[in-house]
Design a protein that fits this description.
By secondary structure, this protein is an alpha/beta fold. It is built from 8 helices and 14 strands.
Length: 368
């Protein structure tokens, strides 16, 4: 029996190592095979006009009952600071990883759990605000981002419609004289770019945008910023501007990330390498470099991502010539680093304390 058990363990190790090697050499092909739905896109009606008036349609909102994920802080964070009354609209990243549907059912328990964990770890950057709003939405499945099928774009369009409807409820619910912050990660940032271009640019609402944190998705400085109607944030006191970056090790491979972006870029950008916006989260400025000693605290998570420890000086931040944010040889954040040295999962966690300070500093700098 012991010998059989040892054989089994050896077999598992071989399979694991083989899988890691295969993923290293064929990352996109294996990801596409593993996560892309095989069925057709399922058209779905728009949500009822009053859907987002229901608190159950939100992961976080100011009047929610029970624990507030956005109020979470990592172990070791003890700053006692007064609350800020600035509304924040946060769109969570992809938490639906299944192949059953192109869009996540709103009641899928696994997607809901992962979304809650992500909101806790990321929207908590804005936790000094008493008005953090994070909607549930019929997000596109993870496989949509590595698929060339028409269904992928249809899935993203459906997800965007939900985000846009949630945003309308958010705007209707917060005071009309207050500035607002838009924030997201990954798929959430993808939707925020479209939201700015289609519902905010050129409207009176544009003057109320305090800052946009479109982290973890490509923002093209030449085309996207113009479409969004806002410039990049060039200094830490600037408002009405955009912060964005993509975290990679010094040995980055951008192939998968750029392929995903160009699948859904406007037609005039297809086949043209984007000029990546690289905000430096350690300086609050555009480009440049800062050493690890400038990092006031990464939120280093446990394997479940439900707890974290504040760890200063874990990683520096340098905007490379290709527009990515380089974080050194590979800081010890956990097992979820993607192929190509991609620290996508940890975009917020790597700079948790400094992003929190960045938000607070821009709020203080706001002038109507």
């Amino acid at each position: 029996m012991v010998r059989k058990f040892l054989y089994f363990i050896t077999f598992c190790i071989v399979i694991y190592i083989g899988g890691r090697i295969a993923l290293q050499f064929y990352p996109e092909e294996l990801t596409r095979l593993s996560f892309t739905p095989g069925g057709k896109f399922e058209p779905q009606p728009a949500l009822p006009a009053s859907a987002y008036a229901d608190p159950a349609m939100w992961i976080v909102r100011p009047d929610m009952a029970g624990p507030n994920p956005a109020a979470w802080v990592p172990d070791g964070y003890a700053a006692a600071t007064p609350a800020l009354d600035v509304p924040v609209f946060f769109v969570h990243p992809t938490s639906y990883l299944k192949k059953d549907h192109w869009n996540a059912p709103l009641d899928d328990p696994d997607a809901r759990h992962i979304a809650g964990v992500m909101v806790q770890g990321e929207a908590s950057v804005f936790g000094r605000s008493t008005q953090v709003w994070a909607p549930r939405y019929r997000q596109a499945t993870f496989g949509a981002f590595v698929s060339d099928k028409a269904e992928a774009r249809e899935a993203l369009d459906l997800a965007y419609r939900d985000v846009a409807e949630a945003f309308d409820q958010f705007v209707a619910s917060v005071p009309a004289n207050q500035p607002i912050v838009l924030a997201g990660h990954s798929q959430g940032s993808y939707h925020l770019k479209r939201l700015l271009a289609e519902k905010i640019k050129g409207t009176p609402l544009a003057r109320r945008i305090l800052a946009v944190y479109a982290i973890g998705w490509v923002v093209d400085r030449e085309h996207d910023l113009a479409a969004m109607g806002l410039p990049a944030c060039e200094n830490p006191q600037q408002t009405r501007c955009v912060i964005s970056y993509l975290s990679f090790t010094d040995q980055a491979d951008l192939t998968m990330m750029l392929d995903a972006y160009q699948r859904f870029a406007p037609a005039y950008e297809t086949g043209v390498a984007p000029q990546l916006l690289c905000s430096n989260p350690l300086t609050g400025g555009l480009g440049g470099a800062a050493p690890a000693s400038a990092n006031h605290g990464a939120a280093v998570p446990n394997v479940k991502l439900d707890r974290a420890t504040l760890t200063p000086a874990l990683a520096g931040a340098r905007c490379a010539a290709d527009g990515t944010l380089r974080v050194g040889e590979g800081p010890a954040m956990g097992p979820y680093v993607l192929p190509g040295g991609n620290y996508h999962v940890y975009d917020y966690a790597l700079f948790w304390a400094d992003l929190r300070t960045d938000f607070e500093r821009r709020v203080a700098a706001w002038k109507p």
